[in-house]
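pasting Aminotransferase for the record, 400 residues
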Amino acid sequence: MSLLSQTLARVKPSPTIAITGRARELAAEGRDIISLSAGEPDFDTPAHIREAAKAAIDAGHTRYTAVDGIPELKRAICDKFARENGLDYKPSQVTVGTGGKQILYNALMATLNPGDEVIIPAPYWVSYPDMVLLAGGTPVVIEGAMQNGYRITPEQLEAAITPRTKWVILNSPSNPTGAGYGEDHLRGLADVLMRHPHVWILSDDIYEHLVFDDFRFVTPAQVEPGLKSRTLTMNGVSKAYAMTGWRIGYGAGPEELIRAMAKLQSQSTSNPCSISQYAALAALEGPQDYINESRAVFQRRRDLVVAGLNACPGIDCPVPQGAFYVYPSIAALIGKTSAAGTVIVDDEAFATALLDETGVAVVFGAAFGLSPHFRISYATSDEVLADACARIKRFCEGLR
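structre below
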């Protein structure tokens, strides 16, 4: 009898975590490593949020809370959705989890049966397909080509829907591409979904506040109110407020779904960290200046990285609308050989050779379901990014 379950055998470890770990190992060995693999703001959590957490400790908020969130935080989340997205939710329609990842996982685990299909546009966040597999479902991947701005079309969505489709996952702005679905793009997809009332929508809005230039963020239930009764709108404080380690995510949707997710959470992690919940409350209710300040920094870094990568022979880097990632193509480099003799047979070989020969850690495109590309997170300093781009350029110039 095998120790490990057949369910676990269906999934693989997160490539982004694996590459970040490898970069840390090399750095610990004394190598000069620049890791651009982790999707994490490099700023400190704003001071007023940190102070709220300390005050929560001093006030004795160190015990169990309601399974899926304290009432004050749920009310603040309802206010946020009303204020920023024009969506009306009651606290009973809100759930709080240990990061946005748990919200997504709970929703899929609570709803999927064997044979249920989940439509996932590619490039996708690495965890979507594996969470679907863990829940017993079947991922159905649609390719959002670079020439379409890494977005899927209504025609592609229509063709992918079957009687077994349970969910479609939409992520805008996207990890890994930074591509955004504007109102017109979402309207086209919403028109398709309105024709298929059995399909639920899982909207991952975690990068809502990291948008650039004239891009305007909208969420599906906002664009088409007719979808609200079968939409789970997920968000969190990790990216917008530099709170990745605090592990607070939240979602809003129909009460039946929220109750099911709470039931599942009650038998897994139970409540999120009580102190983190009070910190998230301060983030949502307190000053919002940090968001605009960090957005300006990320936009500057985006421009630096896009220009630096497009100066590299064989790399084609589109300009993303949001998040803090770029997802350039290396189609012109496939088949070439590096200065150290590595043949670039695919984007994984490119990323491996780049790390070994230059010390720059990136994530290969196959991990996100679309090759030949790679992902860079530009959530680090201008100086580090400039150094990384210079190293990548030298690497590309050395290819033959």
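Residues 63-285 form a domain with the Aspartate Aminotransferase; domain 2 fold (CATH 3.40.640.10).
The chain has two domains: 8-44+290-397, 63-285.
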